[in-house]
Amino acid sequence: xxxxxxxxxxxxxxxxxxxxxxxxxxxxxxxxxxxxxxxxxxxxxxxxxxxxxxxxxxxxxxxxxxxxxxxxxxxxxxxxxxxxxxxxxxxxxxxxxxxxxxxxxxxxxxxxxxxxxxxxxxxxxxxxxxxxxxxxxxxxxxxxxxxxxxxxxxxxxxxxxxxxxxxxxxxxxxxxxxxxxxxxxxxxxxxxxxxxxxxxxxxxxxxxxxxxxxxxxxxxxxxxxxxxxxxxxxxxxxxxxxxxxxxxxxxxxxxxxxxxxxxxxxxxxxxxxxxxxxxxxxxxxxxxxxxxxxxxxxxxxxxxxxxxxxxxxxxxxxxxxxxxxxxxxxxxxxxxxxxxxxxxxxxxxxxxxxxxxxx
Length: 359
Description:
Layout: H1 27-37, H2 41-44, H3 48-52, H4 57-64, H5 75-78, H6 80-83, E1 90-91, E2 97-98, E3 111-116, E4 124-128, E5 132-136, E6 148-149, E7 166-171, H7 175-178, E8 180-189, E9 192-202, E10 210-216, E11 223-224, E12 255-257, E13 263-268, E14 282-286, E15 293-297, E16 309-310, E17 313-314, E18 330-334, E19 341-342, E20 348-349
Antiparallel strand pairs: 1-2, 3-4, 4-5, 5-6, 7-8, 8-9, 9-10, 11-12, 13-14, 14-15, 15-18, 16-17, 19-20
Helix pairs in contact: 1-4
């Protein structure tokens, strides 16, 4: 499955040829397959040519023959030149990582979050932009009823460039014991469009269903840091005592960093498995306005530049001279087309960044 040459077996790399429904078989193996397994051919392919040729070995194997014998199955598997180091993460001469991807779910509409609850059930949850979250069992089967359904409250549209909608979900570190989870989505209140951050609890009667009546919490801010423990009584959350603006007049104490435009996805570094280096760093992706997207390492009290800058590029010339803009915390940004990354130490890392066009 990890072979970069697997597409050859189905002629998938050439758009001018029809996609094979049965992979290209080597002649000796095809003869063995025809003699031992031809009764299953109708279950493998609906190609009329293959169906009609199933009773004639020569005709059948001719249809499955490949122009380049090096890529036929199963000889491809024993070709050391083509199969060495499969399944390992490698880097080519341009610095691009070569990864083996494995499909875990399909049939989704604009999926944008995939998380697990760390509760020992080995389920994983996928959120869709329209406001649905689906639970998948360890065997990757999707439950018929959504885990969370807030489609009526979520503000989004069918326009492919719409950045609004259901944008994030995370589970409390102690979800196994308290059943709390948090979601981030767009809403419309009157004529205003806002971002809502809400706390939910899982149903007491069904571990695969959120209690939709349990929703609470809301605040529009920058990068927010709040304490959500021990909130069964009293305030929904508390302000950590070391938040950077807690004693600053006119500032919301929830704000941890600012100068971001549409920071819609964050991850916490688990650190090096042995040294723990990098542990607890927060990486967040921020959607740009025009040419650039950026990924930032979030640090306490930092100004990440919007709406003066997107990435390292000046967006508003009048605002770019602001001395509080933090350059050192920006990890990298990607241009509208391929661009090189640069890490926080300034070392050139010639890795491929994805084009902004098409996601």
